[in-house]
Amino acid sequence: MCAEKYLSNNKSALFSVEDDVDDDEFLRRPNNTSRGYNQPTSSGSYQQMEGRRLELLQQQKETEQRSVEATQRSLSLLRNSEQIGIATAEELMKQREQLERTDKRLDDINVMLRASHRHIEGIKSVFGSFKNYLSGKKDTHPTPEKSFTSETDRTPTSLSQTLSASASASKFTQDDHPGMRIRGLGGDDELRNRPENPRQVIDENLDEMVNSLSRLKGLARGLGEEIESQNDLIDKILPKVDRSDITLERQNKDMKRLLK
């Protein structure tokens, strides 16, 4: 029955006696219509897709590497800026110490000049009236002027507080100068164990950049306040210098008149 040919259908043009084939011949014929579904993709197309995938992965790695290098360069510049700011702060602190010593010495000089002036006046009034003698005796123990240094020695400056806070926030310390340097700006920080994931490296670098910018902002504010404070101190020193100069010049003239 299977070996017999199919009968033609006169009502349909789809089947005819000429088109009928037996089962063995039908099974031997290749099925061209289902080739795209049953056969795998050609090796050339697969290699092309794989090459494109590898190319995209390489581009991604290069982009991530450039991003890592860019964040590291930015972080290095920020660290250098911190070093410059801290060095400037140290110089300002030394300058403040010098100004405070100058202010105190001027107070001492003015006290001595007042004492020497009284001595000169005492010599001039040896043969003077008793009133002048009593008035000179009342001021035997002069009261020194209130020194600016005595206040600043007890109260930390704004700049030193800013540097200490910056060091605490950045979790760095300096053995030989606490609160003045932020440790980790040199080579030791570069030796830290870094994660292998580039994205994690970028995230950590960005976090460090944010912290560094915050410290720089506080440091800049502290430097500005310190400069203003030292300007006020200089304005206070200048009148003392003028007063000492005038007093010394007047005493020189008095001594010259006494020696004539």
UniProtKB/TrEMBL annotation:
<protein>
    <recommendedName>
        <fullName>t-SNARE coiled-coil homology domain-containing protein</fullName>
    </recommendedName>
</protein>
<feature type="domain" description="T-SNARE coiled-coil homology">
    <location>
        <begin position="196"/>
        <end position="258"/>
    </location>
</feature>
<feature type="domain" description="T-SNARE coiled-coil homology">
    <location>
        <begin position="61"/>
        <end position="123"/>
    </location>
</feature>
<dbReference type="GO" id="GO:0031201">
    <property type="term" value="C:SNARE complex"/>
</dbReference>
<dbReference type="GO" id="GO:0015031">
    <property type="term" value="P:protein transport"/>
</dbReference>
<dbReference type="GO" id="GO:0098793">
    <property type="term" value="C:presynapse"/>
</dbReference>
<feature type="region of interest" description="Disordered">
    <location>
        <begin position="28"/>
        <end position="49"/>
    </location>
</feature>
<dbReference type="GO" id="GO:0016082">
    <property type="term" value="P:synaptic vesicle priming"/>
</dbReference>
<feature type="region of interest" description="Disordered">
    <location>
        <begin position="136"/>
        <end position="195"/>
    </location>
</feature>
<keyword id="KW-0653">Protein transport</keyword>
<dbReference type="GO" id="GO:0031629">
    <property type="term" value="P:synaptic vesicle fusion to presynaptic active zone membrane"/>
</dbReference>
<keyword id="KW-0175">Coiled coil</keyword>
<comment type="similarity">
    <text>Belongs to the SNAP-25 family.</text>
</comment>
<keyword id="KW-0813">Transport</keyword>
<dbReference type="GO" id="GO:0019905">
    <property type="term" value="F:syntaxin binding"/>
</dbReference>
<feature type="compositionally biased region" description="Polar residues">
    <location>
        <begin position="30"/>
        <end position="46"/>
    </location>
</feature>
<dbReference type="GO" id="GO:0005886">
    <property type="term" value="C:plasma membrane"/>
</dbReference>
<feature type="compositionally biased region" description="Low complexity">
    <location>
        <begin position="157"/>
        <end position="170"/>
    </location>
</feature>
<dbReference type="GO" id="GO:0005484">
    <property type="term" value="F:SNAP receptor activity"/>
</dbReference>
<dbReference type="InterPro" id="IPR000727">
    <property type="entry name" value="T_SNARE_dom"/>
</dbReference>
